[in-house]
Amino acid sequence: MELSISKAKFTPKVFILVALILLSTGMLFGTIGGLQYIIPGFLKEALSFEKTRPLHVSSVLFWILFASMGAVLTYLKEHTGKKLYSNNLSRLLFILFVISVVAILIAYCFGVFGGREYWEFPPILSAPIIIGWILFLINFIISVGTLKNQPVYIWMWLTGIIFFLFTFSESYLWLFPYFNNHVVNDMNIQWKSYGSMVGSWNMLIYGSSMYLMTKISGDKSYAFSNKAFILYFAGLFNLMFNWGHHIYTLPTQHYVQYISYSVSMTELLILGNIIYGWKASLTKAQKFFNRDAYRFLVAADVWIFLNLVLAIGMSIPAINVYTHGTHITVAHAMGTTIGINTMLLLAVCYDILKDTCISLDPYQKLMKFGFWLANSSLFAFWIALIAAGVLKSKWQMSSDQIAFSVMMQNLTPFFIVFMISGVLLLIGIVLAIYPLFKNHLACFFTEKNIQ
Ligand code: HEM
């Protein structure tokens, strides 16, 4: 590792490598959490659910952030055909992020919390993240040079970087008594920042996917097309307003919720349509030469459709009242972060890390098997969560007063399916990404130039 992050050898690909490590360890923590669903008290002393949940959630969220940073920096270099403005700034960004992630995971292991849901670490650990992100923004803006005649992905990346900085900082406003003392306002701001934060990293991911699709098809007109810019503006609007669907249960203005309801699906619909159209335009040779990345992009398209159906259902206020606080919400969160974000990012990882030091041809069967295993088990995983959520929502609304523990006991068969399919999902993804690690290790030992 030391060699990889030394000045001479540092490239944004190292972000991707760390991202894949976080993805693997994050899924391992998720599996322990899943086991704790079925065996209450499992590893209670050393690693209780209060610890495994944030360990899992933070690891996988940092997988998304690291992979997005690596993708943006690598593709920016390819797009401009020049070096980044400063390799040192991206190296510093990398070091700051690694330091905070390691500190965050250690804090969780020792039961040191202090933050809020999703970012439960002590707030001070967000400081290196904010500083690193400012460096990222500076490096990006100077490396791009001009915004004149830029393709859609440059706009998406710039918007994603700026808004992540804004929303991540905003999610810490509760530290100030002025915000903390007004419960409804505080919760509104909290959920608004979270919803918009997801929209921000979606911008980074969609931008990278647009770049990858343009690269595979060899047709730049995609990235300048009206449809691509409509996706950009829908994403931007969504990023600003879709958070309303997080606050259905708060006593606030209904128009906020209705606007968010009507716009939150448009972005996915357009993205799904773009991938569909792009897929149809490719030649057989283009599909074959980029088969690994292509496979994951197509999988994301299918997951966009499935998640749209679930999201449309959940966004209807009368249904949302039932689904709120059930495993249907977890199915929505994991269905989108795994099915859409992770599939798109894995396509990008394949494109960036493939074949640099060894040929991946001997691993084709393994990668294909891993891909199918991951996607089929994700389907079972997702259905099991939805089924558990439906039963829980029935319990929440029932007047029968069945005890919580009895209801949870009744959900055990679904949690067993969830757990087994979670393990298969983990195995599938690890098999699919193993050749990428092997390739990087080969680079490491042969000291080949991995630029
Ligand atoms: C790419 C892989 C994964 C991603 C991106 C991911 C993402 C997430 C997210 C965002 C949440 C928070 C959900 C919410 O608060 O509503 C979550 C929760 C959880 N995940 Fe995953 N996950 C992944 C894989 C797994 C795997 C393989 C398992 C294994 C069974 C798993 C088990 C869990 C559990 C038990 C929770 C806690 C749910 C609760 O609070 O009741 N995850 N995951």
Structure notes:
The structure is a single chain. The protein is mainly α and 451 residues long. The protein has three domains: 1-145; 150-276, no CATH class; 283-297 and 309-451, no CATH class. It contains 20 helices and no strands. The protein has helices at 2-5, 13-38, 44-47, 49-80, 87-109, 127-144, 152-170, 177-180, 183-217, 221-224, 226-241, 254-263, 266-281, 284-289, 291-315, 317-323, 327-353, 364-397, 404-410, 412-446. Helix 4 (49-80) packs parallel to helix 6 (127-144), helix 4 crosses helix 9 (183-217) and helix 15 (291-315) runs antiparallel to helix 17 (327-353). The longest helix has 35 residues, at 183-217. The protein is globular. Protoporphyrin IX containing FE (HEM) binds next to helix 2, helix 4, helix 17 and helix 20.
What is the fold's blueprint, element by element?
Elements lengths: L1 H4 L7 H26 L5 H4 L1 H32 L6 H23 L17 H18 L7 H19 L6 H4 L2 H35 L3 H4 L1 H16 L12 H10 L2 H16 L2 H6 L1 H25 L1 H7 L3 H27 L10 H34 L6 H7 L1 H35 L5
The structure holds protoporphyrin IX containing FE.
Primary descriptors:
451 residues, mainly alpha, 3 domains, binds protoporphyrin IX containing FE
